[in-house]
Amino acid sequence: MSRDPHAARTVRCPQCGGDSRYAPDNPWRPFCSARCRSVDLGAWASERYRVQARPSIDDGDDLTSLPH
User: Which one of 1, 2, 34, 43 is separated from 50 by 20 to 30 angstroms, measured CA to CA?
Assistant: First the structure.
């Protein structure tokens, strides 16, 4: 039995963890709703999502003052 390649799949909503229809008829995909999409956007806007990084040599910092 083969799967229909055009059938929508269900994925986990990145915000609430509920089911979300990942298909063109879901305007909020991969989110399940406009609310979840807005909450996620708010988190990005308030910089709650961060990735720690080491300073780059190209940042213009004087690395000679760092402890060895």
Answer: 34
Tokens of 56: 């780059």
Beta-strand relationship, 9-12 and 19-22: antiparallel
Predicted confidence (pLDDT) per residue in 2-61, tens digit: 566 667 899 999 999 999 999 999 999 999 999 999 999 999 999 998 888 888 776 555
C-alpha dihedral (26, 29, 30, 35), degrees to nearest 10 = -100
The amino acid that residue 36 corresponds to is C
Q: Do the beta carbons of residue 18 and residue 30 sit within 8 Å?
A: no
Domain 7-49 fold? Erythroid Transcription Factor GATA-1; Chain A (3.30.50)
